[in-house]
Amino acid sequence: MTRSLPFNRRTLILALLALALLLGLMLVTAPATSYSDSGSTWHRGPAGYSAWYESLEQQGVTVQRWQRPVDDLIEQLGEVEESTVTLIQNPAAIPETLVAVLPGFIDEPGLSALLPWMPDWIEAGHRLVVLGVKFPATAAPFSQTLTSEAGPVKIDTRRRYSQGPNLGVALEDEYGAVVWQQVFGSGEVTMAATPYLAANAYLNEPGNFALLTELVTSSGGRVWVDEYLHGYRDQEAIATEVGGGSWLNYLARTPLAIVVLQALAVMLLALLALNHRLGQRHTLPAPQVDNSRAYIQALAGVLHKAGSHDFVVQTLSQAERIRLQKSLGLGNTLLPVEQLQAAWDAQPTLPTTDLAAILNPPIPKGEGQLRDWLKRLQSLHYPGNTTGDTSGP
Q1: How many CB atoms lie within 10 A of CB 175?
Q2: Is residue 124 a contact partner of residue 77, using CB atoms and an 8 Å limit?
Q3: How remote is the C-alpha of 285 from its chain's centroid?
Q4: Global pTM?
Q5: Do 249 and 243 form a contact (C-beta atoms < 8 A)?
Q6: Are residues 68 and 161 in the same domain?
Q7: Residues 19 and 55 in one domain
Q8: Does residue 159 belong to any structural domain of this protein?
Q9: Helix, strand or coil, per DSSP, at residue 250
Q10: DSSP string, 183-219
Q11: Burial class (CB in 10 A: 0-12, 13-18, 19+), 57
């Protein structure tokens, strides 16, 4: 048995270990790419768009937050159009405008992975406004105020887009375009080189809000803001992703590494929680120390390291002679070996033994000779020896 910690201290240690494990698991299993609230119409921080969204509602603009995959919106609008006539067949139809405020600067190749629905939305004849497309930085001043049809617009970025063919520019300077428009088939795309064009940080810059409002309302149709991009989900979208609360669907959608880490965490916590003794705790008794035995063992260790074979032989021989004398009734006074031999030979039950060779041996030259002598000395203690006390020195 091992000595255990007090209950309160042991509980505290287990709680700290569990907390450290939980924090480590949260850090390891955190999504590698998670969308922040930057650009969300619910975010009231400097990078949010809550103020601009509220300004649209105050102006009576039909604007809605979309919290499901954009593919569902495309399908929903397509069903409505099929009941009458499609936008492609009837150019007079009012297109829908979808606003995607990126959570940070995203380059054009990254847009395909982040917004895979872009081609379908544009081909359906709708308008798309994307804020935060990443382009190379130029020598332009980082912070400046540019003129536009909507009024002065303050920007804080050096990134610009060089004008290309079939390009309409809404905001630019001598270094390139900051906001531009381009037509693709039946649809139109408006892009901005900053994700903060009308963020809450520019609440006191009316030209920023006015420019973005003009860009998204110029067609006169409804305005949709993609909040699914920022991680917001409605109940139907959550049910679809989780699979109706089924554990099998959850495991199927969860990366294998996260499942393994969660299983290991649960197993470790279970082992820590169940690692307790059955019944009451018992304090281990303090071991009793035999001072004589400890002294003998310590002395034997010293003599062995020093190689004092002569001292060992002399001490054991003298002790054995006293024991034999007492067993033969010769008293405690040390007698010559010849007298001890005569008393030994007088006992008919004792074997014939040369006591002088055993009790007065030559000094051993090594451990091998010492072991041989100890075996011969031990032969005097055989059970056949009936001289009396055979307990040894």
Answers
A1: 16
A2: yes
A3: 42
A4: 0.54
A5: yes
A6: yes
A7: no
A8: yes
A9: helix
A10: EETTEEEEEES-TTTT-GGGTT-HHHHHHHHHHHHTT
A11: exposed
> Per residue in 248-303, pLDDT tens?
665 555 566 666 777 777 777 777 666 655 556 677 787 776 666 666 666 666 66
For residue 40, tell me if it sits in a domain: no
- Per the structure, the count of domains in the chain is 3
The range of the structural domain enclosing residue 260 comes to 7-32+249-274
Same domain (yes/no): 124, 265: no
One domain for residues 111 and 189: yes
Q: Could you say which DSSP state residue 360 is in?
A: S
- Are β-strands 187-192 and 127-134 bridged in parallel, bridged antiparallel, or unpaired? parallel
Pair of tokens at residue 53 = 């969204």
Residues 255 and 348 in one domain: no
Instruction: Locate all alpha helices (DSSP H) within the chain, ordered by sequence.
Output: 7-29, 50-58, 70-82, 108-114, 118-123, 206-217, 235-242, 247-253, 256-274, 291-306, 309-327, 337-345, 355-359, 367-378
**Mean pLDDT over all residues of the chain?**
76
Whole-number Å distance between alpha carbons of 179 and 189: 11
* 60 against 237, higher pLDDT: 60
Does 54 share its domain with 28? no
**Are 260 and 357 contained in the same domain?**
no
**Residue reference for tokens 């054009």:** 108
**In angstroms, rounded to a whole number, what is the distance separating the alpha carbons of residues 270 and 215?**
58
Q: How far apart are CA 341 and CA 320, in angstroms?
A: 13
Q: What angle do CA 85, 87, 93 make, to 5 degrees?
A: 85
Q: Tokens 């809450």 sit at which residue?
A: 200
Token pair 């497309």 is found at: 133
Sign of the torsion formed by the C-alpha atoms of 229, 231, 234 and 240: positive
CATH of the domain at 160: 3.40.50
Tokens read off for 216: 């998204």
